[in-house]
Task: structure prediction
Amino acid sequence: MGAAGIMMPTLPAFSRSVSAEALLEPGLDVAVKKRLADAALNAAKSLGATYADVRIGRYLNQFVLTRENKVQGIINAESFGVGVRVIADGCWGFASVGDARNEAVVAQAAKTAVTIAKANARLLTEPVQLAPQKGFGEVSWKAPIKRNAFEVPIKEKVDLLLSANAAAMQNGANFVNNVLFQINEQKYFASTDGTYADQDIHRIGPNFTVTAVDPQSGKFSTRNSLSSPMGMGYDYLQVNPADKVTGVTTRYNKGYDILEDITSAAKQAKEKLTAKSVEAGKYDLVLDPSHLWLTIHESVGHPLELDRVLGYEANYAGTSFATLDKWKTKDFNYGSKEVNLVADKTQLYSLGAVGWDDEGVKTKKWDLVRDGTLVNYQAIRDQVHIIGEKESQGCCYADNWSSVQFQRMANVSLEAGKTPLSVANMIKDVKKGIYIIGDGSFSIDQQRYNFQFGGQLFYEIKDGQIVGMLKDVAYQANTREFWNSCVAVCDESDYRLGGAFNDGKGQPAQSSAVSHGSATARFNGVNVINTARKI
Amino acid sequence: MAILTKEEAKTIIDKVLAYSKSDEMSVNLAGGRTGNIRYARNAVSTSGESVNQSLSVTSVFGKRAGTATINEFDDASLEKTVRRAEEVARLAPENPEYMPMLGPQTYLNTDPYAESTAKMDPNYRAQATFDSLDPCRKKNLVAAGYMEDTARFNAIGNTKGLSAYNRETSVEFSITVRTADGLGSGYGTSDVTDVSKLSTKAVTEVAMGKAQASASARALEPGKYTVILEPAALVSNVDASLMVALIRSMDARNADEGRSFLSKKGGGTRLGEKLFDERVTINSDPTNPEVPSGAFSGDGRPQEKITWIEKGVVKNMPYSRYWAEKKGVKAVPPGGNFIMEGGTQSLADMIKGTEKGILVTRLWYIRPVDPQTLLYTGLTRDGTFYIENGQIKFPVKNFRFNESPVIMLNNLEAMGKPVRIGGNLVPPLKIRDFTFTSLSDAV
Result:
């Protein structure tokens, strides 16, 4: 699966409603968590487990939902529980229990996990092979937030969203839906390897959709926010001129100006109603980071997940065209020489940043595609030996205490170009092109060959000039052809993060938050279709 | 937590309601267990069980609502939860669209629950998985599958006298079988209320047949084709789908506001207009024995038998209670299931009656392109075949489509016998001029 363009994260499993104040209450003391964790680990070992880990998770969410001049709801939710994963008789087993606050309950979960592992051992073809991992002892990690969003009074958030909505309505919007998502994961991990990691992760995601309606023609159009969900606190909503990228419309780096963006959105949604419908054909595409992140996510992030390559996702998300035999040649051309793609679980302000992953591996950064050639995958402890690595790359994640951890996408990003290049200079050389800003419709096949993407804003480029807005645009391409058509990437000064809260994968389906960085990039001769229909 | 009976749940809820000091209060009590087993590369990969329970209280003063939740059921904890919900409500912003709670309701008698499913344990799941894996291993095929079973209950009560109770079970099973060389792939899926009606072996055999028959597919030019869409191509147990997208896009408020395919030029909705082929009739019925669903919606409204589309005409649209009051109409909730009427033909009969066409097992990664026309894009997957003169001639490479379910249901050629999928009843459909816009190399 992939990320949704319009981010509507669902609440973690078994969430319960609480007051806003309760979101600021401390969770269990770390000493209590260690005691519970040890109870689970000891129970598992005494029942014959050769490995066990336990995750004690407290997941806090606050969603502020508004439309026009109304607050539709404020959701404060907490989910707390314990998940225990074991290897017994060479097989994985997992069990979880909500609101587990004493040793007997977590020990029972450990027992259930061992029972499940033993029941399923007969269905194995080979025992689980776990890459060795040293214990780190008692460690901690905290997201680099400047202002905890949960400490900001609700009234301040409501006032901001309602004033943004008013700006949209004053500038021609007929409707506006505006939501603010705030997430805090308080995760405690312990394993029989001897790691006890206490981590505090924060994420924020402002997100609106402005709608313009022309009742006479019966047509409507929308424009979504150009914000990105970020691994930040409320500081993301701090307006900062240095974080603005100006041009045909303003885009944002680490400080989002919602009032400015929603004002532009209202005007642009109206402008879309009468924009020129695109003529299908080949165009050179200039893709803004607010758009390109999703193409990177779908056509690079997912196909380079080792579990997909091996077939573990065959029944759901699918497999991958980037098979091991291609990687083994050390010469498999994924894209042009301009294309350098890296995986990174440490990137500052990204959604995927943590200190240790959900199986006790210290996080890192590594190459996936270097100078256009496929060089590596994303892999975790029970699979990394297959690609000859001695230790996991640290990208194991579970979306809740009730979910079993497995390989999830790291932040996967396109490196900025090494020679100075501005967006204006990139556009100057384009004869027949389309400049696309913002993410829209997205779809890709189960082996990640054929994809189709839309966007929020489309501008026609003729002879090096932006000549006007287009609508009904989508591009279709094949992953390798597309990345080989990349002829230039702007420099570091244009580098920004995009991302999603809700990358879906696994059965039962789990949601993961991930960022993708890039600078604006140019792709030549891409097939553009016209999506207008009559019903 | 055990599945509480209606009486046991009501006793707890009534005790909580007695603590209320707010204008209105509702209590929701829910609990259950879910278990799963997942396999790939012909071996089990992950498996787990999770149990949970919760009681949530919503207190209301005027148009201000607050909710608090608890997992402990002693008297002191319950009273504390009520006081906390009241505190939250007093501090909440006013919701101008708040609707007063419903009083006593009359519900249809539904029971989407089977003891056989509620009793499933790790050994049952392991055996069901073995029954699926074993035939694949014997034929040198590679299986990846998933089974999830759930047993839960949900009860609501409020200070206006509403009392509702539902218990349900469900099992979803799906399998993708691939040939060892990776050139063929087939899919099978089934969802049931009663696990004794599920044969993982039988579903696996369908997927095995498709995997073997789909190897070494040929490329056809993209374009407009007559297609036979199997039920799994119309409704997905795991992804967005064309039929569910259509049903979920029928909300009355969006249409009234001018931002739906059901918005009328010049204002209002297209209720009463014929928008589809006259053979298209879609209902909801929580009492249907093949697809039983809960008797009430999340806000306590009764789920009734209702016709959404009759002979191609839009007959009803779902309304929120707020919007229904504003418009002076009945507040019909979205259905808990949907049932599309079909014909009597089997899939084999439909293939026999096709001169030239494409058989589509499944559509995948379906995403909206244009909400104005309900245009969606996605791809065929796990078994796509060319039909000529009533026979499957050869497997074909997968296509990307760009199509609207509205256009699709106008280009209807034939309908087969409806089958259960995703808790709904859907027939296989034969559609002319289905739009494939490009080819995919994916298997």
In short: Chain A touches chain B through 88 residues (CB under 8 Å). Chain A has nine helices and 26 strands. Residues 103-120 of chain A form the longest helix (18 residues). The CA atoms of residues 472 and 531 of chain A lie 5 Å apart.
